[in-house]
């Protein structure tokens, strides 16, 4: 069996990646510092400076990603002076100018988030996971993230109408069509682009729930492929990648999180921790 590598570097991802060759990684998945947030723990970039700060790093990501690879960017715009700042929208537009295709947007719904109310808004319970690619021919392994059909099938498929038994094509000309009867006797279904992993609080103030990188790693890579997390924090992506038999590189600028990552990488997670069904609302 090939040896799986889990490398971790201390430094600014901009500088560390500069010495990497082109077209190495199959997947880049990361959660960079959000503008201004957690300035006391790992520095914060001012919302108005965010795009300028991010772009040279994204240029390196573009260079080191394979043409068949995918870049998943977990990010959320903060509220500044009573309205949502536009840096995520501006960044998306600038990334397109850099050559990235903005292929898809996934929603991470934080299903266990505590309730709250502010004078002019409610609790923020979701974040974006933006998908970017270098080409339209990226690798995607959809069968790897299928989920059990669930209870809806028992009720919805019990009594089929005549329309349910033929291909029903969208009237708006989108090309979308469905034949509900195709779902009879199936046990597994394709998921949606809304994911519901519960947040966790493990040793770092903004870690990924392991199910989140696991889902994207399964969807966009195969065993022995290479995964990069350039803002690796506690090293969750590397830990998960290792457990799924993918090679990984993590880059972290803060020495204490770098040390924490090294410890975590010595303790891979068990596969059961991130089964696909944990990502669904009723789980
Ligand atoms: C939101 S956290 C990532 C948490 C990570 N997803 C996890 O599960 O542990 C962002 C991390 O990026 C690190 N960071 C900030 N600027 C960086 C840079 N220029 N290069 C590398 N790491 C950086 C921060 O110290 C922080 O630990």
- What sequence of helices (H) and strands (E) makes up the elements? EHEHHEEEHEEEEEHEEEEHEHEH
Strands, total number:
16
Q: Outline, from the CA principal axes?
A: globular
Q: Which range does the strand content fall in?
A: 15-25%
Q: Name the average pLDDT.
A: 87
Q: What is the number of helical segments per DSSP (H or I, 4+ residues)?
A: 8
CATH architectural grouping of the largest domain: 3-Layer(aba) Sandwich
Would you identify the CATH H-level superfamily of the largest domain? Vaccinia Virus protein VP39
CATH topology of the largest domain: Rossmann fold
Please give the share of residues in helix: 25-40%
Distinct compounds present: S-adenosylmethionine
Using only CA atoms, what is the Rg?
Answer: 20 Å
Question: Can you summarize the main beta sheet?
Answer: 8 strands, mixed
Terminus-to-terminus distance: 34 Å
**Structural class per helix/strand content?**
alpha/beta
Which CATH class of the largest domain is shown? Alpha Beta
Indicate the low-confidence ranges by residue numbers. none
Strand order within the widest beta sheet = 1-16-15-2-3-9-6-14
Kindly give the count of domains.
2
Domain DNA methylase N-4/N-6: 26-262
Protein name: Methyltransferase
Pfam families: N6_N4_Mtase
Family: Belongs to the N(4)/N(6)-methyltransferase family. N(4) subfamily.
Keywords:
alpha/beta, Rossmann fold, globular, binds S-adenosylmethionine, S-adenosyl-L-methionine, Methyltransferase, DNA binding
